[in-house]
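Researcher: Please predict.
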Amino acid sequence: MEEEKKQKPTIPIRLNILFVIVFLFFATIILRLAYVQLVEGEQYRHELEKFSIRELPIPAPRGRILDKNGVVLVSNKPVYTVQYVEEQGQDIDEEKVADRLAQILVPDDSKIGTDKELLKKTIELRSTLPVGFKREETNALKEKIIPMLTRLPDVNQVAGMKDFDLVKTAMYAGLRVRSPFTEKERTDVVKKLNAYSEANGSDITYDDVNDWEIFKQAFKANLPMKLTLDKEDREDLIKEVQAQLRQLPTPAQLNGKSDMDLLRLASLFDLDITLPLTDEQRLHQWHKLSLLQEMRSPQLASYIPRRVKVNITQEEMFQIEERRTELPGISVELEAVRQIMPDPDGTGFATHILGYINAIPPQSLKEYMAQGYNAIDRVGITGLEAYYERYLRGKDGIMDVHVNKNSESVEKTMRQPAQPGNDLVLALDWRFQSRVEAILKEEVEKYKKLPSTPKEYNKTHVLVMNPNTGEILAMASYPDYDLNLYYDRKKFNENYSSLILPNELNDFIYTPYPPASTYKPLSLMISLQEGLTNPSETIYDSGGYYVGTAYKRNWRAGGHGSVNARRALQVSNNTYMYIMADRLLKKSSPWQNQFRILDYYNAQFGLGVKTGIDLPGEKKGWENPYLNYGNLADAFIGQYDLFTPMQIGQYVSTIANGGYRIRPHLVKEIRRGTTDPKEPGQTLSVIEPEVLNRVTIDPKHLQVVKEGMRMVTQPGGTASRDFVGLPFNVAAKSGTAQTGRKAENALLVGFAPYENPQLVFVVVAPNSLRDGTSSSAATGPVSRRLLEAYNELNPGVLTAPPVQTPAQSAK
């Protein structure tokens, strides 16, 4: 027992020793922390301020676009770009920097706005103008402003105003009201405004104009109108108007205002003003403001560099370097922009195929940033650049930039290198695309000089595709333009109105045209499939036919006499089609139901539905509503519904390949992007032919149609002169579309060789015909020459014996 008592104190002693040690350890740490914080804290704070790290994205090279043989069509070209970044700790006078830059950089825009617009832009950017009015000019400006101030009510009267008077006061005070109308009130005012506009000889309509502009225009026109504000909007507007009235000076207080203050008031009241500037000074101010706007981009964090101007000259770069100390925040960096291979003649190449990239549109910014984009990134806007954006876009790298307290770069560390985007390999051969463009240019210019050519004629479209795979072999319009213009702002502005704007729309997928007689092959197939006739039945054409109470005329006065199915296509007989339409209408009742049959077959051949082409924004054409009995007869000769050239190409391909609707596509392969442009990347994806559907037309009826189209190019056919002497047989169908204007559209479609179709062509020449001119005059030479060019570049393809195709293997 005594031994146990002696051993007990040992554990408490050890614990006490441990507690003392722990206490001393933490006391030491606390004392050290106190010393660091209280004694050395200021020194460490200064050391911390000396250095900081910025995380900057390293733009990834965008993927290239190549032709089927590996020829690079779109690549990346390094250019000098002026960038601006507001570094921490720097107090930069951005307006002064923009002013100095405007003295160095050549302005991109040759056009300048009015003085009123210049003033509004200046105020919007919180900038100033170097103006100095003479005394009489200052007094004149005051005289304009005083009536604007005196018509404003006392601030205490605002709360008791009716809604209309409150909105009117807001307008007088230079404010903007978001939505002062109910839907019914808006509709009523718009109707009155449109009527007022028409009565005054103007073609301006207000259906899509914002509510505030509608109010101002209606008020200006003194039109009666009602408006109703909901309670919350009214209360907010009262507060806003009261605050504005308190800020505005009285007429007596104008004497103490500077010229710039007076100009701000003039802009607030939307007054017309004349600035005391020379033309040279105006141009400089517009240039300065455009640069300042880029420098103050609100969508970017302050440490993210902003592009001020892309693709500057070496002379501009040297001047910036010489004046670097006067331009804080400004640097010149190398940046890649897209470079499109031009045609050998220096004109544009594959304009509506390749597309272009640009800054992210404001309305899409949130969507792109949610996908990991930076606000400064450029994205595909049109063409393949837009459709394949997610493949062409690379993965940005990350660089850690160590900067000191003066925002000077001390060290750069690459954390993650950029990964290039994937390459697209197209199905087309650039040589054939280029030849088609050259042929188109020559033939259009030649045709325009003929005395019989309508003055409205100015363009033609050509589409060439493989009917068995859906591959687009060429797609060209003339006139077109060089896509490189999008990457040279000065040249873009110089050419926008005259060249780019009239030809910017991709008519192949956006613009529908009446198919005219090129639709008759489908009308014949429907007639045979629905049992309305048979290939051997002969009808007599005396020049027209009554469909209901309407007499429909054949295009040839006096008619074609005896006509059967094949000959109806050969001579493009209207009367035969009228009779078939009439039989379909009488097949069952009500007759209105028969229109659905047409829509059913249209969709099977790709008409009135999207083709699936790998281009953004494809339209599905326009199928007009069938309002009366005779509309079906018009549709049977291709004079009612409207279809795009791409839809017509898919329709003809479906005939050529034996009844398989195949999705058209431009891209053949997607390959992994490489840093070495000479080394092709790994193939990631191969675009295989995709059969969308098989038509429900009996193959023997398809064969009758193909035979009829072959007869079109034989003696007696409407295109008999166009393909004489070629070493292969061509099947075709011409068309002349009435447009309701003086000039008519010409179309020519076909495939070759007839026995084993490898190529389908579509030629559309809007507004090219007048006074009964044959459609072949505008489309025949182009069609023949493109076939010759393809045969020359691909010897044996159009003359080879039949082989099984992807479409045929699907049977």
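Model: The CA atoms of residues 32 and 38 lie 10 Å apart.
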